[in-house]
């Protein structure tokens, strides 16, 4: 058994898609639009086959995001080396994204950083 994909509702579908393409080398499908509900989505595929569905619809509820809350909290991307963690974290910081942790080695041995995307969703970058 494997996880087929993870889905994320976002306010700005196009900018969020572009974020994952630019920084995480995602490939996007052509998108989907249900004209009846105004639901829109993209499936993003990453190099190892993992997929992330980005979704938007006008009536989606918006909840305040907290650094530690119940439920799904972050998506983690393995970039292959400490140097790549440092480089990507630096690029994101230079481009104005908030780094909320690291890069550092955690108590359980992970080398990682954590940044917020343009909508405040936590993205973990690890080896």
Task: Give structural notes.
By secondary structure, this protein is of the alpha+beta class. It has two domains: 6-56, 2,3-Dihydroxybiphenyl 1,2-Dioxygenase, domain 1; 74-126, 2,3-Dihydroxybiphenyl 1,2-Dioxygenase, domain 1 (Roll). 20% of the residues lie in helices and 35% in strands. It has two helices and nine strands; from the N terminus they run βαβββββαβββ. It has helices spanning 13-24, 82-94, and strands at 6-9, 27-28, 32-34, 39-45, 51-56, 74-78, 99-105, 111-116, 122-126. Strands 1, 2, 3, 4 and 5 form a five-stranded mixed beta sheet that branches. A four-stranded mixed beta sheet has the order 6-9-8-7, with helices on one face. It is globular and about 50 Å long. The mean pLDDT is 94.
Key descriptive features of the protein:
alpha+beta; 127 residues; 2,3-Dihydroxybiphenyl 1,2-Dioxygenase, domain 1; four-stranded mixed beta sheet; 2 domains; five-stranded mixed beta sheet; 20% helix
Fold blueprint:
Elements: E1 6-9, H1 13-24, E2 27-28, E3 32-34, E4 39-45, E5 51-56, E6 74-78, H2 82-94, E7 99-105, E8 111-116, E9 122-126
Parallel strand pairs: 1-5, 6-9
Antiparallel strand pairs: 2-4, 3-4, 4-5, 7-8, 8-9
* Stretches with pLDDT under 50, minimum 5 residues: none
Query: What would the CATH topology of the largest domain be?
Result: 2,3-Dihydroxybiphenyl 1,2-Dioxygenase, domain 1
Order of helices and strands: EHEEEEEHEEE
| Principal-axis shape | globular
State the helical fraction: 10-25%
CATH architecture of the largest domain: Roll
Number of strands: 9
Q: Which CATH class of the largest domain applies here? A: Alpha Beta
User: How large is the count of helical segments?
Assistant: 2
Q: What composes the largest sheet?
A: 5 strands, mixed
The whole-angstrom Rg is 15 Å
Quaternary class: single chain
Number of domains: 2
């Amino acid at each position: 058994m494997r996880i087929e994909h993870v889905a994320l509702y976002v306010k700005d579908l196009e900018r969020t898609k572009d974020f994952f393409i630019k920084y995480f080398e995602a490939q996007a499908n052509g998108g989907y639009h249900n004209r009846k509900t105004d639901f829109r989505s993209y499936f993003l595929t990453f190099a190892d086959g993992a997929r992330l569905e980005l979704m938007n619809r006008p009536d989606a509820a918006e909840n305040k995001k907290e650094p530690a809350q119940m439920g799904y909290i972050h998506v983690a991307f393995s970039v292959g080396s400490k140097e790549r963690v440092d480089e990507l974290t630096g690029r994101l910081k230079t481009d104005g994204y908030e780094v909320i942790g690291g890069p550092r080695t955690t108590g359980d041995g992970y080398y990682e950083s954590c940044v917020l995307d343009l909508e405040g969703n936590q993205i973990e970058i690890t080896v």
